[in-house]
């Protein structure tokens, strides 16, 4: 019988001793032998990582109300009468020439003429672009002569779940606007309301600060358009 000596290590301090085994006892695969002679080590404990969903990441720049409709409002007194101001806003076909971020507009050619005579409801295809976004959608425009122009996206779009703008015009008397340099000149209070809701909360986070400035930009653009059409007034 074949006897062979083999040195083995046991115990915490690696104490060695020699024992003899027969060939039959040593018939285990070498891989098992090698693994069985390795000193046992305790693996370090692994801390379980907490799982987070995409929208709980703290680095995303929007809060819990990002998915709710956002509303911005601005108003200003203009030295024009309400008919003049209404005509500028009711001219939807001219929006790309002065409305910020409006890249295109398609509407019936006779829409403005009818809007100056009576209440009208007409669909317009508008294209807007800002930051890296570009969107075309159908907006239902409701015009009440010399009082208001309301435009609302007729259905949700890939970018916007809700999008609407409202312009209102109210003629002021000299008593209402005492700071006017010319009491006889017409004065009109113009109010602008913007309501929007993005379809994707990620878009809301990226654009929340940006859209907070849009209402004031719209008023400024509207004022510049009035000066261009009617000339400057005091």
UniProtKB/TrEMBL annotation:
One matching Pfam family: Polyketide_cyc
Superkingdom, according to UniProt? Eukaryota
What SUPFAM superfamilies does the record point to? Answer: Bet v1-like
Q: Mind telling me which InterPro entries this protein's record contains?
A: COQ10-like, COQ10_START, START-like_dom_sf
For this chain's UniProt record, which GO biological process terms are given? cellular respiration
Q: Which GO terms describe its cellular component?
A: mitochondrion
Q: List, in alphabetical order, the Gene Ontology terms for molecular function in this entry.
A: ubiquinone binding
Q: Which segments constitute the Coenzyme Q-binding protein COQ10 START domain? A: 82-223
PANTHER family associated with the record: COENZYME Q-BINDING PROTEIN COQ10, MITOCHONDRIAL, SPERM PROTEIN HOMOLOG
**Subunit composition and interactions:** Interacts with coenzyme Q.
Q: Which family does it belong to?
A: Belongs to the COQ10 family.
Reported function: Required for the function of coenzyme Q in the respiratory chain. May serve as a chaperone or may be involved in the transport of Q6 from its site of synthesis to the catalytic sites of the respiratory complexes.
**Name of the molecule in the record:** Coenzyme Q-binding protein COQ10 START domain-containing protein
